[in-house]
What we know:
The chain has 413 residues and is an alpha+beta fold. It folds into three domains: 23-190, no CATH class; 249-326, no CATH class; 332-412. 48% of the residues lie in helices and 10% in strands. It has 15 helices and nine strands. The strands form two sheets. Strands 5-6-7-8-9 form a five-stranded antiparallel beta sheet.
Amino acid sequence: MSPSLPGPRRAPARRKRAFAATWWGQAWVTALEDSTLDAGRLSRGRTYARKGMVGPATVTPGQVKAAVQGSRPRPYRSSVHLPVLTDTQWDTLLDTIAARAGHLAALLDGEMPAELVDDARQARVPLLPQPAELDPDCSCPDWGYPCKHAAALCYAIAATIDTDPFVLFALRGLGREEVFAQLRARRTATQTTSTPPAPTGIPAAGAYAAWAALADHTPPLPELSEPAPHTAALPVAPPSGTGLVSTDLEHLMTDAAARAARILAGDTASLHLTQHQDAVRIAASNPGPEWFHHLIQNTGAKTTAFARLTRAWRHGGPTGVTVAEQPHTPEPAAMRAARTALAGALAEMTAAPVPLRAWRNRLTLTDHGVQLRLGPDARWYPYLQDDGDWWPAAPADPDPVTALTSVWQQIEE
């Protein structure tokens, strides 16, 4: 079990006039301060917040926004975005709250239970923000990340999160009343259920872990070759009226058999995919246009965004999808070394200087429509710009120059 969050309900002040008094409010401030290396803009943001230059904030799913007064007469429109939880993640979080009466009691008392955040984290549900998740935006001309106005908004909202932890729930997608309604529905369903639920089986990850625990006491498996396609037909047709089609179920059987063979061979990456990532994985296996359409429809994804993730999977698997969706802040030394190497290579490849813009884990050649993204696996993922969107363009490489040259010919043609 991972270590619990700090027991005390009040976080120690990190400066004379700290913006957050609780540990969960301080977690918000820490996520902001760990997301940037620009201490100067953070300092000016704190000054703006203390001077009351942040107007009333509006909290909606995935976003908090407010007008922030700057040096010009008209206030700027600043906002901070936070990814909302998926339906599956919400189900897990609500089940976690319902499992302990003390969780809801603490929330109603204006406190965030440390055990709830701990349990949610173990279930891979991010309730408190991580540095890579906060995404500030502002109408001002400052290219800083964040600018001082968005930083001021982040600091100002910390006090609200202090007094009402349900603000974090609202940012993740469900407000106070919606959470209560969902919890009441769960309690009612539990009270009215007269028959035991049907067996749900064992999650694949748990089954594999149990098998691995017995590996020392069981004969070794035979050497596995590349599995042949599973071609068995269904023994009976699906019941009418279910919407299930034999060919679709047979396609899933084939996929399940191939995944099982890879797991037995030691490739366990697919055990930890989210529903969203697994849909992208299936789409990347070229199931046909009809399946592609159904996957988009049933996941609620936008067509272009889903197609972009499908290409990211083909070039980099689960890590490629993570790189496409989640910017992060790597070690500054890695970014400096990459910029130096690219500057030298570009000097030999072009006659004129090439502007190179850095933002978090991304290096962009704006004039050439090329972008390199440093992944959590320390590999560089090349992207090309098409109609204003960035698309994965080639497999990743540990060397940024090699990653650049893999797509350079495409833009030169």
